[in-house]
Amino acid sequence: MELRQLAYFVAVAEEQNFTRAAERVHISQSGVSAQIRRLERELGAELFDRAARTATLTPAGAAALAPARAALAAAEAVGQAVGDVAGVIRGRLTVGMVVGCTVTPLFDALAAFHRAHPGVEIALLEDDSDRLVQAVRAGTVDVALIGAATAAPAGLEALTIVSERLVIAVPPGHPLAHRPRVTLRDLGDHPVICMPAGTGLRAVFDQACAAQGLQPAIALQAGAADAMADLAARGLGVAVLSASMAEAYRDRLTARVIDDIDIPALLCLVWRAAPGPAARELLAYGRRAFGGAHGRARADVPHAPHDGGLPEPAAAGDDPKDSRAASPEEQ
Asked: Most buried in the list 63, 123, 177, 256, measured by CB within 10 Å?
């Protein structure tokens, strides 16, 4: 019996689906199925009822689930105990990132963290902000970069790295391009291009409209700023973007701040209280990367008003030869 077999078993039990479990553990579905079959032969009992569309536990599987989780937790505790003594961080770190948001300081932080702690497996996934927040709360994502309308989603810690106004972006010949002041009511006569529900930018826009009792006609939705800009440039509507997003398209679009939206669009790192060692260390690298990110990301990155008490990573952590980092042979 191998720990990886128990990990695959727990993944299938929790996902109730072999395909989703395979995606979660990053191997093929056939690989998961083969290892589960080997485990079942060794135990002498089937663990899943495969007759239905979902993989449901048999009585034997239900009996095995708690001990399997305990065995995996014990193995992780062994690694952590040794790591605490040796100064080595191991394990797996899942990082979420809002779709279509290319922020190089995050990648810088991940690269520096990986050099210092090669024993930690890093997984990166994209999703909309609402689902990422849910995943962080559920513990399936350790740290996430999200768009938000409030600095800290309920129940989570947050580090604000970008705070900026919403703007409209229209072609130079558009009627709104020549107005010195644009308000939400001005959008009532024009089709609006906006990001879909579940994104931070849309949350800011919807909250501002609701506060004034307005319901602008959202004609088109797109999850990427490039797509929104292309649609607006073709005269299909007024794109609602953040100021830094619009800046990238100033060669073909005119941007105007929406004067009566006082709620800023935020870009934040979020995590659960009392993060594990790997997540805490990554957050420290993130704090340093974003603190020096001016001029390298689309938006200016202000210093966060509250850093959640995160420590600076030790200077030696940037050195891949740091004695505290696991060598490839030790992984």
From this structure: 256
